[in-house]
Write a structure and sequence with these properties.
Structural class: alpha+beta
Helix content: 25-40%
Strand order of the largest sheet: 5-6-7-8
CATH topology of the largest domain: Rieske Iron-sulfur Protein
Number of helices: 3
Order of helices and strands: HHEEEHEEEEEEE
Oligomer: single chain
Strand content: 15-25%
CATH class of the largest domain: Mainly Beta
CATH architecture of the largest domain: 3-layer Sandwich
Distance between the termini: 74 Å
Largest sheet: 4 strands, antiparallel
Radius of gyration: 29 Å
Number of domains: 2
CATH superfamily of the largest domain: Rieske [2Fe-2S] iron-sulphur domain
Number of strands: 10
């Protein structure tokens, strides 16, 4: 009779452990959606979550395109020649007058960060094209200089500036938190 009692008690222990394990897995599975819902939604992230850019791999003269708030952004590492041309251009006579110094951060004049959307009809201009070594909108002929200022064509405004700050000399953040 003692042998039957020990078999029942080991069977009972197994059932308790198995039931406890299933309950723990079930509790974790039920809790996971509540924890996951605390993360920001994709629309919140797309609506302006800051984007960090490592500037180290961007060569002088190169323009990269990144996305922030669902729109393309140009990050341009301007050459000394482009900077000189942008600074010495007669900005007062331009359609949307703005000096180059108002379009870049002091001490980081080699970096220009602007919206990559043409201000005429929303096309995306091509970098290093046109008469001013800036951007050329092939759809309607708008030409921007290396500071993103409208110089020729139907676009009414300069390429829009976006909020950004330098975290270090080698890293910038678009969409200041």
């Amino acid at each position: 009779m003692t042998n039957a009692i020990s078999v029942d008690s080991s069977r009972r222990d197994f059932l308790f452990i198995a039931t406890g394990a299933v309950a723990a897995v079930g509790a974790a599975a039920a809790t996971w959606p509540f924890i996951a819902q605390m993360n920001p939604s994709a629309s919140t992230v797309a609506a302006g979550f800051p984007v960090e850019i490592d500037l180290g791999p961007i060569a002088v003269g190169q323009v990269i395109k990144v996305f922030w708030r669902g729109q393309p952004i140009f990050v341009s590492h301007r050459t000394p020649k482009q900077i000189e041309e942008a600074e010495t251009a007669d900005w007062k006579s331009m359609r949307d007058p703005q000096p180059d110094s108002a379009r870049v951060k002091a001490g980081h004049e080699e970096w220009l960060v602007v919206s990559a959307i043409c201000t005429h009809l929303g096309c995306i201009p091509t970098p290093h094209e046109g008469n001013f070594d800036g951007w050329f909108c092939q759809c309607h002929g708008s030409q921007y200089d290396s500071s993103g200022r409208i110089r020729l064509g139907p676009a009414p405004l300069n390429l829009a500036l976006v909020p950004y700050e330098f975290l270090s000399d080698a890293k910038l953040q678009i969409g200041v938190a």
